[in-house]
Amino acid sequence: MVAAALVEGDLMKPRMRKPTLPNLYLGLSLALALLPACAQAELYITIVQGLGGETVYEDQFDEQRNKIEAASRTLTATDKVSSFSGEGATRAAVLEHFRQLNSRMTADDRAVIYLIGHGSYDGFDYKFNISGPDLAATDVKQILDALPGRNHLLLNTSSTSGALIEAITGEPAPRDDAADTAAAGAPGKYLLIAATRNGNERNATHFGQYFAEALGSEAADLNKNNNISVQEAFDFAAREVATYFEEGGKLATEHPQLRGEGAAQFSLARLDEIEREPTGTDPQLDELQQQRLAVETQIEELQLRRNEMTNTAYIEQLQTLILRSAELSERIDAERAGSAETPTSTNGNDRF
Amino acid sequence: MPALRKVLYPARLLGGLLCATLAATCASTLQAREQLYGIYDSVELLNCETGFWSGQLSTADACYRGLLASTQPAAIKAEALWALGDIQAANSMFQQATTAAPADAVARIRWGELFMQTYQYQEAFNLFEEALALEGDNAWAHLGAARALQQGGDSDAVAEHMAAVDSGLAPPGVQLRALIMLVRTSLEQDQHERAQETLEEAFELARDNELSLLELHALQAAQAFMRLQPHQDFIDAALALNPAYGDAYAIPGYFASITRRYREAGEFYQKAVAVQPDHWEAHLELGQNHLRLNQVTQAHDHVRTSYAGDAFNPKAVNLLRLLDTFIEDMEVLNYPDPPQGPFPTLELRLDKDETGVLQDYARDLSERSIALYSERYRFTPKAPIIVEIFPNHEDFVVRSIGMPGVGILGVTFGYLFAMDSPSAHPQGESYHWGTTLWHEMAHVFTLEATDHLIPRWYSEGISVFEEWRTGPIPGRKIPLNVLQAMAEDKFLPIAKLDDGFMRPSYEDQVIVSYMQAGLVFEFIDLEYGFDKIVDILYQFREGISAVDAIEKSLGISVDDFDKHFKQFITIEYGEMLGQMPLWQQDHKASFAALEAENWQEAIAAAERANFVYPDYVEVDSPYIAMARAYARLDDKDNEFKTLETFWKKGGYAPRALMALAADYRERGDKESALQVLNDVIWADPFMEEVHVELGDLYLEQGATAKALREYQVLLALDPIDKAAANLKLATAYNTLGDHDKTMEYLMTALDIAPQYRPAQMLLLELNRAQGSAGDTEDTPAN
Questions:
Q1: Which end of chain B, N or C, is surrounded by fewer C-beta atoms within 10 Å?
Q2: Distances (CA, A) of B56 to A207, B48, B236, B245, B621
Q3: Distance (Å, rounded) from C-alpha A11 to C-alpha A19?
Q4: What is the DSSP string of B137-151?
Q5: Test mutation, A319, A330, A347, chain B, max B CBs within 10 A
Q6: Which residue among B429, B741, B780 sits closest to A319, beta carbon to beta carbon?
Q7: Among residues B159, B155, B154, which one has the least CA distance to residue B142?
Q8: What 8-state DSSP symbol labels residue A218?
Q9: Cβ contact (<8 Å) for A15 and B740?
Q10: Which of residues 89-128 of A touch B (CB under 8 A)?
Q11: Does A27 touch chain B (CB under 8 A)?
Q12: Domain check: are B509 and B642 in the same one?
């Protein structure tokens, strides 16, 4: 995720063919971070869809689950995407799933857990509403604690979901009047996202709808790498939630929060059909793709070293690498038979 | 008078010349320390007072100090401390006085007046109430309570206390103070005959009872000034009694200020502080007056002086903070730069964070309006016109009247006007900044063409008329509450139209008066021609009243004018006014049906509403309900037609216009799309999408310079998608053949998003073009 605070810059004094750039605070989405940490690492995605209670919510949750499933399959193999919904989404089934998953996962693997639905909070305990006994905050914490490795993601779109974060981290939830809830502060093991700032925001939320939409939206992909990171999806959804309430002239009843670090490096979806592994059938294409990945890695390394060189030198090197990447892309495009369709999204809001 | 009531009127309507209505907040009505007028009978204290109020300040000073060293009661010592300027000690001493003499009403009254001087009106009121609890018929306490309540605008409660003062049993000093209050109120309301009668009564009372004439002379000077009569003799009479009496000038200064004669107000206040350098109120008003005349440095000096002498005044604190904002946050842009004459035509003062967004649009609209008004009103500005646009509404209000918390949108002081930025209003609120600017600019011309002698209604009426006739969204916009007032025959006779602004007798009367004034000019223009409007305008400069000017220029009596105007209103609105209840019913039904997802009923109800009142195009217009319903039915043609009608009638809801622009584009009508998008700018220039759409359209049409402007504004908005914004700029510069700028923005885009394919492709294209041109200089090696 790129944050473009201009620290110093000489944008107003360009020189011939040696354009200069402001120093940018860069949060790089490393190309290799699209995948789990090493070649053998895997990404396991679990989606738990809770009870809607009413048809309108059932339909919404179905739609969100479908979008998340589709997005997840752009990053990981189908057998690593697990979904629970309706009568099948029981506490026992979910707990059993994670017991089995723990035995499959290695310390290098990453897990993503989506909780889509309604939640409740009685001032003491948070519960995610599913068929049969609800999933309690302690259940979720145990699931997370038992996962091998680190840097996993839990996303909870439910009402009162801020209370779950409080239960997991042991840190008090932000007050109702807290200005910024997208603060860091989670333990290094997980990234945590909730639709609400605390357990007092009890209305059905809109955050999940926008988060699911982000996973297939070019508008969310601000660094244009065809990859939607956790940070990009969260920012997109948070913006849309804010806009929804502002434009409707309504008091916001939900304030999403993200805790933990590394959200910009954690990929959740790809917008195009990128080759995750060599095709094995087109050696030339495989070679070109590997070359491009290598160039992209060089670009990221260059950006990390930008403060070690003059702006002119940086720009020259960046330009060289990007030209190389562009040429490779052109050749890859020529080599590939077709191109992936860009997922599109719609919602039922009025245009005006 | 509802002086402090917060009034929020529909977006475009409230602005202009507010000081007459908001007199209590526009300038101070209080003096530093007032005369005792006989509340005490202590000979020792009155000796000191006589010295003080006759200007023998060192003698008085010694006298007050003598009281402190004596065995005088605590209340008398409190008075001495107060007179010596030690407010904190006076406060403590009054506390001692009331503790020592719990049944002493007078000590409480005077303590309350000390609180009045330190702007703590609630505390003051509480003390007057305590005094009344001790002595229910104490006229001093009733008067004090009335004055405290007047600050809050509770006219009924004020009247109740004043009735007790008027009982005839009040001591002469109270009666005199009450008469002085009445003179002030009469002058504030432009009721000169009543002011004169009251003044005469006050002089007689004061002379009969040997009370001070100082304030009466000053008020008489103020009245003479307001009536364009010689006034210096009255000031001299006051100064003859007390050469150090700053109020001899400050009181006329106050009345000059609330009648918008700021240049003269400044001269009065300047003289006030010259004869009484410790007149902190006068320093403050002088500071604020300097600010209105764009003399920022002098303003700072006097406000600081005032604050150093009287740290209690919240207005001084507010203004000091505002001046910091002026210096730290605002940027000044002159046009043309360098000037093509003795001075620039236009000076924009914008917040640095908003300059990149607003400067071109504000300049464009300002220059257009200046050119138009110069011609229409036969007036060439004799100084630069200064337009200040504040992103913080309260900063703007403090800049205008010194205190926050008032629902105004723009205020004109002459060649300078201040207004809210569109960013000062939350999304979803209907604020059309383009119309506000247009409205205020008209005031600049009507004020300056008449040397600020124009009646309030005339200036406001012309500004509203220009909004409708020539503004960014032409067409009459009459709010529903005004239509209701029309239906109830609440319009005022032309001779009394100023009362609607300055002495409103019901909640909506100010806005009703704005609209009536606008309609008056529609009528004059239609019936007599526009030139008559200007002819009348120039008579004000000669001191001719509105009634005389109208009768002279139009050749009819104002009674006949009123009759004809009423006929005009009946012709224009009579039929529709009779059906307003039906309209309201259908308007409500259309949105209710929309909410219930009953699309057909929403359309039917909106159609019925539009049939009755087709020109209602505010953000809750039935056209909006209808277009939304058509959209839900996927009836694109009717959705488009509805939005088009809405726009052509002056609708400005930004999201609706964006949808219409997209429809025009789909239909290949790029010119109309451009017009619609440009209209969005006057409502919400902070919307990213409008600049993207405008830039792309301009680029498609080959208007690259205009496209570039839109993309520059887009980047100035700190957009979410910075890579895309930089690429758009690079593309525009590339079209213009500016290679350096192209590369600058292109590489910024690629630095943000190295894998951004369209940007990569442009780089590749540029590189190849360079290569094919044989220019290998600096070409990166692969």
A1: C
A2: 75, 9, 17, 11, 68
A3: 8
A4: T-HHHHHHHHHHHHH
A5: A319
A6: B780
A7: B159
A8: G
A9: yes
A10: none
A11: no
A12: no
A2 Cβ under 8 Å from any chain B Cβ:
yes
Measured between alpha carbons, how far is B99 from B735 in angstroms, rounded to an integer? Answer: 84
Q: What predicted TM-score, i.e. pTM, was given to this entire model?
A: 0.83
For every one of its 352 residues, what pLDDT tens digit does chain A have, with 9 covering 90 and above? 322 222 222 222 222 233 344 433 333 333 333 333 344 589 999 999 999 999 999 999 999 999 999 999 998 999 999 999 999 999 999 999 999 999 999 999 999 999 999 999 999 999 999 999 999 999 999 999 999 988 899 999 999 999 999 999 988 766 655 544 444 444 567 899 999 999 999 999 999 999 999 999 999 999 998 899 999 999 999 999 998 998 777 889 999 999 998 898 899 999 876 555 566 678 888 899 899 989 998 998 998 898 899 999 999 999 999 999 999 999 998 887 554 443 343 445 666 7
- The CATH number linked to B631 is 1.25.40
**Test mutation, B425, B744, B776, B779, chain A, max A CBs within 10 A:** B744
ipTM above 0.90, yes or no: no
Nearest CA in chain B to A250: B428
Residues 6+ apart with CB under 8 A from B39: B106, B109, B110, B140, B171, B173
Does B220 map to a domain?
Answer: no
B661 contacts in A (CB within 8 Å)? none
| Full residue range of the structural domain in which residue B596 is found | 579-651
Based on the number of CB atoms within 10 Å of its own CB, is A242 exposed (0-12), middle (13-18) or buried (19 or more)? middle
Question: Distance (Å) from the C-alpha of residue A34 to the closest C-alpha of chain B?
Answer: 14
Compute the nearest-CA separation of A250 from chain B (Å): 10
The answer to whether A32 contacts chain B (CB < 8 Å) is no
Residue B345 included in any domain: yes
Last residue of a domain, one of B541, B574, B607: B574
The tokens describing B541, both together, are: 């400069």
Q: Classify domain A42-270 at the CATH topology level.
A: Rossmann fold (3.40.50)
Which residue is closest to B756 within chain A, CA to CA? A224
Q: Under an 8 A CB cutoff, do A14 and B743 touch? A: yes
Sequence spans of domains, chain A = 42-270, 283-335
